[in-house]
Each structure stands twice: as C-alpha cells, then as structure tokens.
Design a protein that fits this description.
Elements: E1 2-8, H1 12-23, E2 28-32, H2 39-44, H3 46-64, H4 80-104, E3 108-111, E4 113-118, E5 121-125, E6 131-141, E7 145-147, E8 160-161, H5 163-166, E9 175-179, H6 183-194, E10 198-203, H7 214-225, E11 230-233, E12 235-242, E13 247-253, E14 258-263, E15 265-268, E16 272-274, E17 306-308, H8 319-333, E18 347-349, E19 354-359, H9 362-368, E20 372-378, H10 383-388, E21 394-400, E22 406-413, H11 416-428, H12 433-437, H13 448-459
Length: about 475
C-alpha cells in the first residue's frame, strides 16, 4: 500500500487535511488509533460538551424562565441518563458523517497506532497486536492532545476525573470541585451548576479564562456567580485525595492561608498536553521542544516530507486552528501559497452567555506600548437582548488610536460565538471601527451591540447609551 500523503490522527486537523489532500488529487490515507473517527473534538470534546451545554441550558430555562415567558409547566426534573444518551447520539451522527466523508473522498482509513519505521514507512499496530506497514511520500502528524493530570493526583476516572469522564457521569454531582478556571473548567462546571450541582472552582491565577481579555474574565465571574458557582481565585492546589465516596482538596492562597474542600467529584481541567506517544519520532530524528513537535512557518518538521499540525505544534489548542493548518499544509503540497493569520483565530467559551474574542487583548496592547482606544456597549441596553431576557454581557472594541483600525473584538453575551465571525471578517480586511459603525445592522439584533461599541470607540457617540 503506497500513498502520496498519510495523515496520522483523524481529529479536526487530521480529517480536514486528508479531505483537502484528496480534493487536490493526492492518494491519501488516514490512520486512527480508535474505532471511531473525529478525534477528541468529536468524541470527547467540542461536540459532546456543546450537546450537554445546550441540554442543561434548556433545563435551566424551563426551571427558571418559562413562567416569565407565560409558559406554565410542572417543575422539570433532570433525566441525566437521557441527557447523556442524546449527547452520545449527537456524537454518533458526527463521527458517522466523518466516515462518510472519507468514503466520498476515497480516503483509505487504517485503524491502529501509526508509528514511524522511517520517514517514508509507517507501521500500523491494531488493538489486537497485528502489524502492517504502508509507504508514503509525505506524512502529516495530527495526533492532538490529552488532558493534563496533576502530578500528585492522577486521574482515577472515578472521583478525580478529566473532561472525558465528566461527559459520561451517571448522576448530577452533589458538589463538583473544578480545578482550573479556563475554558473547559468553566464550560463543564456551568453544565452541572445548571443541573443543580454545587460547583466550586479553584484557579491558580487571579482571573477566569486568563488567556482572554481581562474584562471578559471579570464579566464571566459575575454571570456564573448567578448560577451559584463559587470561586477561589489565586489559590494553589496542594493535594487532592479520593476518600472513596468523596474527594478532599487542599489549597492555599498567596499568603499561605489554607482551605479544604470536600466534594463527590473533582474535575481537573488545568490544560492539555500534546499527544505524541507511540509515534516513534526517535526513528526519524525528531526531538520534542517542551512536549511539542518543532516546525517551521510552513508547519514542516526538520524532515522535508513530514509535517505536523494542530495541538502537537505551537499555538492555541483549538479545533479550528488545526483545521486551517491542515488545509494550509495540503495546499502547500500542491504548490499553492496559502497563509494563516494566527492573530485572527478566534477563541470561544461556550458558557451562557458565551464569550468570544479575536485579535489583541487590552493587556497585550498595554504590554506592547501600543496607543489604542476602546469602546464598549452593554447587552442590557440592547432591545433584542431585553426581548430574549439575555441582558448579561457586553461588546468591547479595541482600535488603533491614530488610524482607528480594529485591533481586538471581545464579546461576552448571547450568541457571541457566532458574532465573533463578524469581528474576524472586519479585521481580516483591516476595517476601522468607523467602517463597522457606518454599516447598516439589522434591528433588532445582537450584532447592533458591535455597531454601538464601534461608535463608542470611534467618537464616543453610541446612540443607545
């Protein structure tokens, strides 16, 4: 079996790379360790977590908001078994879709662990230990990442859990302790808080979602406190111990003051690590740099025919970043000249309200010494938000003080995940805040908040505030 391109890993980066390679006329193979395609994102990440986020939000609205809308129903109950079953069905539909796309594009799928014999030979070891080999002209490594455990509290998958186990719980926790106030911790913590669990978040840094603009973290803290979530920011976890039916966590703040928390589950969400286990990189002379595969600006490793994309290389660990890199590598192989503007890859937190950002944060601009101006507009001043009872949040625009070019768009509020695409588009075309403020925005919509924030940034003249 000989191929032009072999992709190792079938997550968003891998399967998109394989499809684009096939579209460009390459004979393409994809190797996947597990029985289902789609990687972490489709199986135990992006897709199932969004399914549970939506289900839990429906429950919260039925419990707390339907009556205000004039909808009288008996008090709703959580059927966690059905909620998990629906999530699993959503996952199945998506992974079946990927399998269909492989057949449609005539991509050959090999199931097993792919490892290098040499730069043009890949050994595939199936779950039952059977081995086979294929030869290939080029290789794209897209093996993704795994949850990072605490060194003193490895995942036991019973009480000390990762996001994978949090998506399969058979009960609503009485008290879920979440270590890490980043994207994963806040998303899954909010799921169970809506369903009635007590949720306590312990974060080492002084703010939530610390990689995003500081205003977003402050606003997210406010709105998630309304769910009853409790927070210990600026606390270092000292120990986590499974006592059988409960978990005991000990932490201390910067002054050394200690706290002790007891819960029935502890979700560890302190980040993810690149997954390169079993690849046999040593066979082709590739050494990791801080756990990641070193690549050049074209995502090529030290070997001319071996590329790496997604979570195993530098940059944000985002599914859509991996997809763009997969397309870029495939098109480069075909002699095209694609590019990626990494500054304009948006980040999203799928809590409710959602948080979405693109471009520079205010903290980054200050550190750069860049002269900037800012404009913001609150959802509570928005007619559409009042109509839907989604008045939490705001839009924040950062623009160059001299040229008015938009430098950053930061949104916390209903539909922020979809709205951020407008910010990406504006910044890709290097629009000014005034450009956006002079565009007609449909009324009533959430996007009017972006127009108003741009008005505020341009001349401090929002219309509705």
């Amino acid at each position: 079996m000989q191929y032009n391109v072999t992709v190792i890993g079938s997550g968003p980066g891998g399967y998109v790379a394989a499809i684009r390679c096939a579209q460009l006329g390459f004979k393409t193979a994809i190797i996947e360790k597990y029985e289902t395609l789609g990687g972490t994102c489709l199986n135990v990440g992006c897709i199932p977590s969004k399914a549970l986020l939506d289900s839990s939000e429906h429950f919260l609205n039925a419990r707390d908001h339907f009556k205000e809308h004039g909808i009288d129903i008996p008090a709703p109950k959580v059927n966690i078994k059905q909620m998990i079953a629906r999530k699993s069905d959503v996952v199945k539909q998506n992974v079946d879709g990927i399998a269909y796309l492989m057949k449609k594009n005539k991509i050959e799928v090999h199931t097993g662990v792919g490892s290098f014999v040499d730069k043009n030979t890949i050994k595939i070891t199936s779950a039952d230990g059977k081995e086979s080999t294929i030869t290939t002209e080029k290789v794209i490594i897209a093996t993704g990442s795994k949850p990072t455990p605490l060194p003193f509290a490895p995942f036991d998958k019973k009480r000390i859990i990762s996001s994978t186990e949090a998506l399969e719980l058979k009960e609503v926790p009485k008290h879920m302790i979440v270590i890490g106030g980043g994207v994963i911790g806040m998303e899954l913590g909010s799921v169970y808080a809506r369903l009635g669990a007590k949720v306590t978040v312990v974060e080492f840094l002084d703010s939530l979602i610390p990689t995003m603009d500081g205003t977003m973290g402050k606003e997210l803290l406010k709105v998630t406190k309304k769910l009853g979530m409790q927070f210990y920011l600026g606390h270092k976890v000292i120990s986590v111990e499974n006592k059988g039916k409960e978990v005991v966590l000990k932490a201390e703040d910067k002054s050394g003051k200690a706290i002790e928390l007891k819960g029935d589950y502890c979700l560890v969400s302190i980040g993810r690590r690149p997954y390169t286990d079993g690849l046999g990189l040593d066979k082709i002379g590739i050494e990791l740099d801080k756990g990641k595969i070193p690549v050049d600006d074209h995502l090529k490793t030290k070997l001319d025919n071996v590329y790496a994309i997604g979570d195993v290389v530098r940059g944000a660990m985002l599914a859509h970043k991996a997809e763009e890199e997969g397309v870029m590598v495939a098109e480069q192989m075909a002699g095209q000249k694609p590019h990626i503007n990494y500054l304009l890859i948006p980040g999203v937190v799928y809590t409710w309200p959602e948080v979405a950002s693109v471009g520079y944060t205010e903290e980054q601009l200050k550190e750069m010494g860049k002269a900037y101006k800012t404009g913001s507009f609150p959802y509570k001043a928005l007619g559409r938000a009042r109509a839907s009872m989604d008045t939490d949040g705001l839009v924040k625009i950062l623009a160059d003080k001299q040229t008015d070019e938009i430098l950053g768009v930061h949104i916390i509020g209903a539909r922020a995940a979809d709205m951020i695409a407008a910010g990406v588009t504006a910044m890709e075309f290097r629009a000014s805040a005034e450009d956006v403020s002079r565009m007609s925005h449909a009324h009533p919509t959430y996007m009017e908040a972006v127009k108003e924030a741009c008005l505020a940034a341009t001349a401090n003249r929002p219309i509705h505030m």
